[in-house]
Design goal:
alpha/beta; 8-stranded mixed β-sheet; 11 helices; binds pyridoxal-5'-phosphate
Length: 374
């Protein structure tokens, strides 16, 4: 069994993807072809924001947002401790200081209480200026932006939504990637909406920031790329990837997001009494980048993982350690608060195979094995 079966998905969508990609080969407009513009319009309309700018990957998307805001040396950027490395790497890459914040035990997302404690600590220290909070929509579920906004407003923080895992999720009618002042996503193949290489996008309702980001991702261009008005980077989604994504976005919107939600629903129904299953609060809708359960302790997790592996079923540990424990951040990441919930989760979480094309039989098989673990 595959953790995320991209081959099976390709076989289902093969005719349309092949045709879409072959058209790009025939037109040979490999960079900034018409498909890129069409995709950006479709993405903006799906997310419900004015501007979508595609770029090279989800990490660049975060960097582009921070650069557009002028974030750099002397700035504090608050980042959840329990996330993928890139969420903290991006602000550090811009020269800012990532300040790690604990997460909620039940939703795995940034703890608003811990955020406020960290902001106060930074203000008391007086060395850094609090500027941005990067909220991550971990494993597919949007962070609690209603509560986060209040603290952000109180301390004048910009909200950057790292929606690399959240694309397709919702709270009420509002789509993930539209909650932040700027939202970003990744089209890495294994993300909820993946392309066939690297890709990413930035979303915002602010036209001025959108203009700056469009310039930044093409060498700080002015009128064109030979008129350079700022230092930027080269970060574009190529036309072949846009052609793949146009086909995949249609399937994603029309049925895949619903299919993956039924898979998750069945998992939760079957596993509820054995492990702690993901808590999706009322009104929230996840895109299920991961289906992650919490075991009783490290020993139980190891047992479950081993028995699954013996049965040919891959299970992964996202994430093994908090950001503050990553070597790259020793001495740079300011440890502002304690990380009780991150520590609890890193010792117990286990992510199970999930994708829209899993069968109910496969879910049942996995659940039976987990339930059988003594
Ligand atoms: C994958 C991921 C990224 C980075 O995306 P890439 O396209 O791989 O650069 C950033 N943040 C989170 C939370 C991610 O899961």
């Amino acid at each position: 069994m595959e953790f995320r079966d991209l081959k099976l998905q390709y076989n289902k969508l093969k005719t349309d993807i092949d045709n879409s990609v072959l058209k790009v080969f025939e037109n040979s407009h490999f960079i900034s072809g018409i498909e890129v513009m069409e995709l950006e319009e479709e993405l903006a309309s799906y997310i419900g924001v004015k501007n979508c700018i595609t770029c090279g990957n989800g990490t660049d998307a975060l960097v582009l947002a921070l650069l557009a805001w002028g974030i750099g040396k002397g700035d504090a950027v608050f980042v959840p401790d329990f996330t993928f490395f890139a969420s903290g790497e991006a602000p550090a890459f811009c020269g800012a200081t990532p300040v790690f914040v604990d997460v909620e035990k039940d939703t795995y997302n940034i703890s608003v209480k811990s955020l406020e404690e960290a902001v106060i600590k930074v203000l008391d220290d007086g060395k850094l200026v609090p500027r941005v909070v990067i909220a991550v929509d971990l494993f597919g579920q949007a962070a609690d932006y209603d509560r986060l906004r209040k603290v952000a407003k109180k301390y004048n923080l910009l909200v950057l939504e790292d929606g690399a895992q959240g694309f397709g999720g919702k709270n009420g009618c509002q789509m993930s990637c539209s909650f932040g002042d700027i939202g970003t996503t990744s089209f890495f193949p294994a993300k909820p909406l993946g392309c066939y290489g690297d890709g990413g996008a930035v979303f915002t309702n602010n036209d001025d920031w959108a203009d700056i980001i469009r310039s930044l991702c093409v060498h700080g261009k002015g009128i064109n790329k030979y008129d350079n008005i700022r230092i930027g980077m080269n970060s574009r989604l190529d036309t072949v990837q846009a052609a793949v994504l146009k086909v995949k976005l249609k399937a994603f919107k029309e049925y895949e997001i619903e299919m993956v939600n039924s898979i998750a629903g069945l998992y939760s129904e079957l596993l509820r009494d054995k492990v702690i299953t993901p808590d999706i609060p009322n009104g929230f809708y996840s895109s299920w980048a991961q289906y992650t359960v919490v075991c009783k302790d490290r020993v139980e997790r190891e047992k479950v993982k081993t028995i699954l592996k013996e049965n040919g079923i891959p299970a992964m540990i996202y994430y093994m350690r908090g950001m503050h424990e990553q070597k790259a951040f020793y001495g740079t990441g300011l440890e502002a608060v304690n990380y009780i919930n991150t520590l609890y989760l890193t010792e117990r979480v286990l992510s199970l195979p999930i994708h829209p094309y899993m069968t109910l039989g496969q879910v049942k098989e996995i659940a039976d094995i987990i339930i059988s673990v003594k």
